[in-house]
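PROTOCOL LOG
Step 1. Enter all chains and additional molecules of the complex.
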Amino acid sequence: MTESKPHLDEMFVSEGAPRAPYELYHDWFSGEDIKHLRRKSAEAEAFFRRIGITFNVYGQEDADERLIPFDIVPRVISAREWARLERGIEQRVRAINAFLHDIYHRQEILRAGRVPKELIAGNEAFLPEMIGVSPPGGVYTHIVGVDLVRTGPDEFFVLEDNARTPSGVSYMLENRETMLQMFPELFTNMKVRPVSDYPRALRRSLAASAPPCVTGKPEVAVLTPGIHNSAYFEHAFLADQMGAELVESTDLRITDGRVSMRTTQGYKPVDVLYRRVDDAYLDPLTFNPESLLGVPGIMDVYRAGNITIANAPGTGIADDKALYSYMPDIVEFYTGERAILQNVPTWRCSEPDALKYVLDNLADLVVKEVHGSGGYGMLVGPAASKRELATFEKKLRARPANYIAQPTLALSTVPILTQKGLAPRHVDLRPFVLVSPNEINITPGGLTRVALKKGSLVVNSSQGGGTKDTWVLGE
Amino acid sequence: MRLRISHKTTYNYDTPVHYALQQLRLRPRTGHGQTVHDWTTEISGATRQLSFEDQYTNQTDLLLADDGTTHIEVHCEGIVETTDTAGVIGRHKGFAPLWLFENETARTKPGPELRRLARDVANADDTLAQMHALSATIYEQVTYDIGKTDSTTPAETALAAGHGVCQDHAHIMIAAARLLGHPARYISGYLLMEGLVEQDASHAWCEVWTDSLGWVGFDVSNRICPDDRYVRVATGRDYGDAAPILGIRQGMGQEDLHVALQVQQ
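Step 2. Run joint prediction.
Step 3. Record the structure below.
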């Protein structure tokens, strides 16, 4: 879609005049030859192909294996901008964990009427098997990806929270690695905060969340559905970087009340399992009995307190799109503070007044399925044909509770390198957050997704999006 | 009443078992008008891995079959002191919210027959009267008949067929009660049967939430609200949550199940 609303260009105030965080980069860029940079860009692509990052960032399901384009112009965020984002993200993630504990225990927030009971009661993301479970250290979401969009110098909105299995962190790491190799001189001139500590921080954070029964050095393992999963590369990559075992369901079994993995020295208990298998497939004894990807009995071991599952099962209730519009209330309820990060204004189509507004203004709105992901099943009103609008209206009327609607925001742009030089493209940002009983650690940066098509607002890799390295500057 | 219970479940396999798990919900707990004395669980051919309380506060054990076994036996034995509360269990305990017991499950998913049943008893003075009417109607329409249904039979199917066992009666009542807006739950447990010490299966009934009395038990199969002849063992949204034994087994081969149950005074 194309849109003509005025929007923030993160790099330039006006043509040739960079914003402060981009000054040094701009100086450097002005001295470079575009053709040379284009060649560098092609090298970067070859590098990604060689190491084999060809998975779909956001789809958990089978997706076409393909390369996600990388753009060599970094996105730069100042220390001041980041500090505020960090505070907002930390507050939100604390609230999400408090909410999850509450929703699987006393449900005070429902009793207080701050979130309607129906939203939880009728929600498939609520996992009865988690009722009464207090995970080790009280941590439910060990890894969170908070998707942000920017509309002004100080205006960031949370687009969605990813509290189940946020993926894409390997992109953040590889993008940086590539930039360091291609443009080492830039990193000596600019104080870019490193992201390479992420795997160590992940390991530290997971180990700190080990169950109390663990006395020695906690054993961390990564559970993957296997080589056919679209994110297998990331699973293998993270296990390797963390120095953890990469396991599949067939490597695991119950021994002595623990989940143990097969090693060359026999079975060895796993203390913390970073699982990249969805809840429904995690335990065929408890959930889908047909699942071959899970570990029978793991939920029993979990309930007995003998393993940490990261993220905890049932965290999907916190990032459910139906709940999204309640996040400001949720933050306030559990932290006693106003939410630092704003939500995108959201109409809940389950509410008759909201539905009426959405139907009347369909051509101006973005309508999303409550349970959808990856940009599928959504309507971008301004880009839709009359026929598409009519078809969607029927779907909306048939199952209003299945949809939420949001205004089309004037997303900020960051330039990408094209044949003709720099050209602005819309971006979003997914910072990665690690939660342990001791601390909340936010890697400075994250994954910037960019809509490569001119004017497009859809940054999803499945729909023609690319990625950029994200630079957070030091003080 | 002082009830002595002995419940032996035996599995025989025609080929050695190399990896199998069994989840037991076979330990009654003290409370709700019953006091458990000297409860023991003896296991052979398998080893207890864990004991924990599940989301419905059922006492649960996880067993791992001994490698190469062809025989697993679980023998529960104990004495339970019961009092007659006329079926009234009372207030809701545990973290599982009441609304969870209003949600349909695969076994209690309503179809036209269940809707008709619910409509037939919809006009009642209060919840209790309505539930008594519902229980009586189910008893009339669904003949107690062993072997026509199994543990996965949906309530709608059993109702349409017009026969089933206590488990089907419970599922039908639960499904209809939920249609009428009342939280309802499944109970598995034991029943002292007059003149019948040896039983070949444990019993099942249901409980319905009433605003006035809290949880109240209904045993459709025996047309009664549970009294001091009943011992509650496990509960949940349906049989799947409260099953006495739930297993998963790797490999092929036949499994032969035998239950020896004695409930006596």
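Step 4. Note key features.
Chain A touches chain B at residues 104-107, 110, 117, 121-122, 128-133, 253-257, 284-285, 289, 296-297, 300-301, 303-304, 306 (CB under 8 Å).
Confidence is low (pLDDT under 50) at residues 55-64 of chain A.
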